[in-house]
């Protein structure tokens, strides 16, 4: 088994993040630091350590959704000492990690698991899993401006966004509510999209990932996914 897959299956990190940990020299196999991508390990014979702790494969798969509050980061650790989403799932013994990220100031649906294969599938660009957000602006927005955003706009780094779906829910001189559905995952993408037309997003909440809906889950709380929800997500592994 490849080392990065072993780490992902053990719930250390997603496969891509595991590759970063290996490249950074944070993983040992049988007492030796390994930086080689694709290094093969035998889970039954080899001793793998991360941060000087023995890594063991997780026997139980966990799939849950968290209603992430604003003011915390979507990572397992934060070098700046900021609050992380891990504190909201602290009663779960299995080691989990977030599937993708939500910005520090963004709320809403965040999937968490210890299934590395699923995380890799859901975060892979080729699958384009649609994500639905509620965005609140501190100003009025017109249908013409929404049409411009829906066709794709150029962000501050020169990247042009793919077409998306936008629906105006309400609008006034001091407040506009828009439902946004995007299939990309660029850093702070929705906020930057609106910035491209000189609009400021005051509040942002992710309400759905594909067919998985946040519903009325209380902020800061989590629930396990149903079998139907898990089966839906696992379809992306086979695509």
From TrEMBL:
Can you name a GO cellular component term?
cytosol
Q: Which SUPFAM superfamilies match?
A: Alpha-L RNA-binding motif, Pseudouridine synthase
Main EC class of this protein?
isomerase
Tell me the Pfam families matching this sequence.
PseudoU_synth_2, S4
- Look up keyword Isomerase and say if it applies: yes
Protein keywords: Isomerase, RNA-binding
**GO biological process annotation, one example:** enzyme-directed rRNA pseudouridine synthesis
Q: Which SMART domains match?
A: S4 (SM00363)
- UniProt EC number: 5.4.99.-
Cleaved signal peptide residues: none
State the InterPro entries in the record. PsdUridine_s_RsuA/RluB/E/F_cat, PsdUridine_synth_cat_dom_sf, PsdUridine_synth_RsuA/RluA, PsdUridine_synth_RsuA/RluB/E/F, PsdUridine_synth_RsuA/RluB_CS, RsuA_PseudoU_synthase, S4_RNA-bd, S4_RNA-bd_sf
> Which residues are in the RNA-binding S4 domain?
1-59
Give the family, as the similarity comment puts it.
Answer: Belongs to the pseudouridine synthase RsuA family.
Name of protein:
Pseudouridine synthase
Q: Which organism is it from?
A: Christensenella massiliensis
Lineage at the top is: Bacteria, Bacillati, Bacillota, Clostridia, Christensenellales
